[in-house]
Write a structure and sequence with these properties.
This protein is α/β, with parallel strands linked by helices and 295 residues long. Helix content is 48%, strand content 12%. α4 (103-115) runs parallel beside α8 (184-196).
């Protein structure tokens, strides 16, 4: 799920093949008399070969007056944000990763770094959560997936060029705090699974992005279910709790008189307790958007 939301999803692969431009995608809409909210499922990192993104995203962007991202994208490029992330992801003076994880996990982390030609001690001052996020990012980048090609970067730049306002739903500090809630056993499980599945990353990226581009939400949903199964609280802390926080923001946008596009990780919009599911439980009519059929 590293390219669909905060955490890593590495799972059994799906045989997904779609040659034509799909008529739907990972985009939903809710409308009332004077406004529409679009819920667009993002992939945070993409590769050159994954471009262009499905046309449905451009269509809903053009119909929207405001962009809402998981975090304020303007702050993402602020040096203070980078420093804050580094501070939050660094252990207190005098502590090291070996104080937080068992010897077997630390050994596997060191083995991974050696296999990639990186200094063995690179992660030793990182918090376990920061190790997990960095490892995921390194592997995605190593396989050509880049944040500057991801949907957030693309559509934030569009919004700047077009003078379209944007904002964020939460802070970087809050996002990173999710990993502080995991027990040692839970973070050990996440790290060990990520390391075990590391060699599957290229194939995983191919199948995951193919499913996303084709609008195959069933495949993506199954991916999320299977990967959160070993650590049940992952879904609660990384997805469900945040989804519940976002629902009032969607309702507030719908109560206004302008069209708003929410661009968030696709995992937040799929399956049980997703933003879409929670809104439907509250009685809203939420439907997947069809290309050139936007109301």
């Amino acid at each position: 799920m590293r390219i669909l939301s905060i955490p890593l999803i590495a799972s059994a692969l799906f045989a997904v093949s779609h040659a034509d431009e799909p008529n739907t995608g990972a985009v939903w809409q809710i409308s009332d008399d004077d406004s529409t909210v679009y819920l667009a499922g993002s992939v945070h990192l993409l590769r050159e070969k994954d471009l262009p993104v499905p046309k449905i995203f451009d269509e809903v962007y053009e119909e929207s007056d405001e962009m809402v991202f998981e975090i304020d994208m303007a702050k993402m490029f602020d040096p203070e944000t980078v420093m804050e992330v580094q501070k939050l992801g660094t252990l207190p003076e005098g502590e090291s990763l070996s104080d937080k994880l068992d010897k077997e996990t630390v050994s596997k982390v060191h083995g991974y770094l050696n296999s990639r030609g990186l200094p063995q001690g690179l992660f030793d001052r990182f918090t376990p959560g920061m190790v997990y996020l960095t490892l995921s990012s390194l592997e995605a980048t190593r396989n050509g997936a880049r944040p500057d090609l991801g949907l957030e970067a693309q559509y934030y730049q569009k919004s700047l060029d077009d003078g379209k306002p944007s904002r964020g739903l939460e802070t970087t500090k809050y996002q990173m705090s999710r990993f502080e809630q995991f027990t040692t056993e839970e973070i050990e499980t996440l790290l060990q699974k990520a390391l075990e599945d590391i060699d599957e990353t290229p194939e995983l990226l191919d199948t995951m992005i193919a499913a996303w581009k084709s609008g195959d939400m069933d495949a993506l949903g199954q991916l999320v279910v299977e990967e959160t199964a070993p650590t049940p609280r992952v879904r609660d802390l990384i997805l469900t709790e945040r989804n519940k926080n976002w629902v009032p923001e969607v309702e507030k946008a719908l109560a206004g008189s302008t069209n708003v596009m929410f661009l968030v990780g696709a995992a937040h919009l799929i399956g049980e307790d997703s933003v879409v599911d929670l809104l439907e439980e509250k009685g809203y009519s939420v439907k997947q958007v069809e290309l050139s059929a936007i109301e």
